[in-house]
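Students often ask why we bother encoding 3D structure as a string. The short answer is that it lets us treat folding as translation between two languages. Here is a chain of 132 residues written in the first language.
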Amino acid sequence: MTPLTPRSRNAPYILGIRAVAYALAGGNTTILKGPELSPRCYWAIGSVFAQAGLPPGCLNILTYSAQDAAAITTALIEHPAVKKINYTGSTAVGSIVATTAGKNLKPVLMELGGKASAIVLADADLEAAAHA
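And here it is in the second language, the structure alphabet:
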């Protein structure tokens, strides 16, 4: 199984590690498709796994430019070696990933947008926040 993890911007280290750790522990190879806005974060993840002794080819870090993102994502999802997709990101892009994966009969694990947490203090203007 070769899970594909396209991207994450808001917490690239934890989301990147979480996306590949279980697949690697299960003996699978992975492609970690780094976010175009923070590619060095995923390079660092790959470096740490390599320093820990992970054999070459088990964790493959892929970086790219924003204009190439759609074509690269489609090519990876459609590749026969990719057996599962793990996607964290926007609902709009998640819909595209799910459609492409569905056409290729590949399972998808998704964590989509809309889960922005907030701390509400006693003096918060809830009416203003509700309309923001």
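Translate back mentally: The chain has five helices and five strands. Keep this in mind for the problem set.
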